[in-house]
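Continuing the series of single-chain predictions for the mutant panel. This is the parent chain; the variants come on the following pages.
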Amino acid sequence: MNKNLIFPLLIVIASSSYGILSTIVKVAMAHGFTTAQAVQSQYAIGFLLALILFVFTQRSLPKITMKGFFIIVGAGLFTGITGIVYGKSVQYLPASLAVVMLFQFTWIGLFLDCLLHKRLPKRIELISLVFLVGGTILAAGVLDVDLSGLSWKGWAFGFAAAFSFAVFMQFNSKHVEGITTISRLTFMALVSLIIVSIFQAPEVMWNGELFTSELLYFGLALGFFGIILPILLFTVAVPKVGGGTASILSATELPVAIMASVIVLNESLSTLQIVGILVVLVGMTLPTVIEMKKEKQRLKV
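Parent structure:
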């Protein structure tokens, strides 16, 4: 495989795993669990899985600088915050619409990256953003559906999740010396679990419900697809492609989430939504395709 494709592909896989979380939470709710319990199980099981990986792969505790410590804490903090407010969004909105709100991190992340690095957006980034925003409006189905009955809380929590996730991407784009990927994952998962436990349902960890009911199965699915897989892949790939490009590539989360809600939850999918998904995919792939063409031209010279 072309080495220029490996890191973008890892980001696509990571964001796709995030795309199925809203559907899993909705299924957990249908089985009688609250969003708080589902989110708590995600971060508790996610940390346990990360700890197991750490014990079996790491020989010693990492030695990092104070700057590296704050980067990891920041990434873990905003991972947890995203889980909290996204869970609230799913509680008030349909799964497909909740992920559309989370999806706003694409343009928020791009402009954050520009602000932090004191640069203007590249032309291809802006063109891609037009496709992404236009495709999002179509994919959300907002043009042919009455949304007046939905609570404003769902929209507010969804936008908060988008902003929080965009900040997480910026923290995760920072390289930290002296720490392995598994160690970074474990400490991020620990910080996330602490912040989530303050606001969600920590009692499921000591009253036995997490390990003696179906919540365990939902926790395993949420922990793997919401903590282990995406954080591992993002940690490896985001520093290689940058926070702005990573935000654009993560657009694959939207079509995956919508398709999951259609297949599992039997939510409706209109022709306009299908067109929107295709437009989003075009906008997502544009920067990578253009960059590959430029690389080929440089090699010919």
